[in-house]
Amino acid sequence: FNFYHGELEMKLMSEMGYDASAIGNHDFDAGVDGLAAQLPNANFPLLCANYNFTNTSMEGKTLPYKIFQRSKIKIGVFGLGIELSGLVPDKLFGNTAYSEPISIANKIAAQLRNDEQCHLVICLSHLGFQYADDKVSDEVLAKNTNNIDLIIGGHTHTFFDAPISYINA
Q1: Contacts of 138 (CB under 8 A, 6+ apart)
Q2: Is the whole-model pTM more than 0.85?
Q3: Is 85 helix (H, G, I), strand (E, B) or coil?
Q4: Cα 45 to Cα 62: distance, rounded to the nearest angstrom
Q5: Between 20 and 30 A from 81 (CA), which of 56, 115, 153, 154?
């Protein structure tokens, strides 16, 4: 990233056949304008339901969710990003507005399950797996939402030998 500002990552993710990606804090390392400049290198959408990019170079360049049809299975996928304030220098994310992810996740997941009739609802999360305090994490998300079948998470670089299951709200 320090040399190519995300270009190589976007090109490799495209070559690997990514269907979609969430947005992480390091995507802002070259600023919101740097992130926007790399989008032509991605042949997949960036999904983020809880960032508002109004009045930034990313405005209109992300989707809250995308629906994929795989054989007879309809899969709804949405993205969530971590709170940037205090994690990323303000000047790098600019006017990007963060919204609390639990209520947004419940709204989007219900829309995908009920209105869009998705068989499977997946959240691409960059919230982090778990924290010692009450900061919103994948674990908190799983326990306080409905209609999400699978959370694929990043940020804390946590690896598991097997999936972890939670009872949702």
Answers
A1: 125, 127, 128, 129, 130, 151, 153
A2: yes
A3: strand
A4: 7
A5: 115
Is the distance from CB of 44 to CB of 19 less than 8 angstroms?
A: yes
Tokens at 120, concatenated: 């499977």
Residue with tokens 């007879």: 72
Rounded Cα–Cα distance for residues 62 and 23 (Å) = 9
Half-sphere exposure at residue 49, Cβ-oriented, CA atoms within 13 angstroms: 25
Residue 2 scores a pLDDT above 90: no
β-bridge pairing 150-153 and 73-81: unpaired
To the nearest 10°, the Cα dihedral for 121, 142, 104, 68?
-10
- 1 pLDDT tier (thresholds 50, 70, 90): confident
Mean of pLDDT values over 42-52: 98
For 97-128, the pLDDT digits (tens) are 999 999 999 999 999 999 999 999 999 999 99
